[in-house]
Write a structure and sequence with these properties.
With 379 residues, the protein is of the alpha+beta class. Helices cover 51% and strands 17% of the residues.
Length: 379
Amino acid sequence: MDLNLSDEQRLLRESAERFVAESYDADHRRKMANDPSGFSPAVWKQFAELGWLALPIAEEFDGLGGGAVEIGILMEAFGRGLVSEPYVATVVLGASLIDKCGSTAQKQARLPKVADGSLKLAFAHSERTARFDLAKVATVAHKTAQGWRLAGSKIAVLEGHAADENIVSAHVHDHQGPSGRIGLFLVPAKTPSLAISDYERLGGGRACNIELSGVELPEDALLGDGHDALPAIEWAIDRAMAALGAEAVGLMQTLLDTTLEYTKIRKQFGRPLSANQVIRHRLADMAMQVDEARSMALRAALKVDSPPIERARAASGAKAKIGKCARFVGEQSIQLHGGMGVTEELEVGAYFKRLVAFDTLFGGSAHHYSRHAQLGRTA
């Protein structure tokens, strides 16, 4: 298997790294942290102009037809810059679900708008009692004469406050009662009886909780033909975990580079810290963890279109391993910077917070080690 990047992939990596290096400095990140939206609409427009929002969308819907590997290249560059734009929520989750489940009319109405930056999406699925069980959905969608009525609540909706449209999962109750199927419903942000409360996420960006109190929707709000959407949800979450794993690799690589540079210039007893053999061993361990994490993220990206069990095992294996690597690299970086590592003057702490957030998003390492083992027994 040839794992070398193609010419197009190398150009994508170079352009993304150059853009992030030029646009995302400490001042920009502090400004975004204090902004109610949590991201810059001007930067989002630049993403559209660069073609990044169209990257995984099919060419027939004004996209570029890219795959998970290209998304991973982009996300690693985003990790290096602590990018806070809602790329995962809109492109990796939202657009993927519409492409996977939507009718031709639903795709034509939304995917070109995602590609040009005029439509932002969010996926509202997690609930308080689910504990990362994707099949556990208490929100209910009742069939009515006019369409659908949704009732329930969702938590930790990534960038849901900024979304123009939310994709909400709910158990379908048709005229015969509970159907046993999970449906996905397109809910505009300004729909009556929809309450959104947003908050800042650890490490940057925002999330929100959503309350649906008898939300009335038209017939065509149901995404697709009404088949059970659980397999598509699992596919989309595995795809998102592969993308977030690549972002975590970018975060860890930046921490490694920053820590290596710091130990070269920081002197103790008249010698640089890097002259100490114990420090060199710790830096070497950090480098090994970053390389292992990069390999796992690439494997997860390569497996996103494999059979369900193979894909899920690769995604859970990557999430568990990268989460463990992220914790190690972040802690070592903080410790090797000493007291400076936890101050606002350096951004080491901000990168570490984003890594901690990655470890808990969509389930921590312990959850995914368990899922990986269970899938192995099933296989």
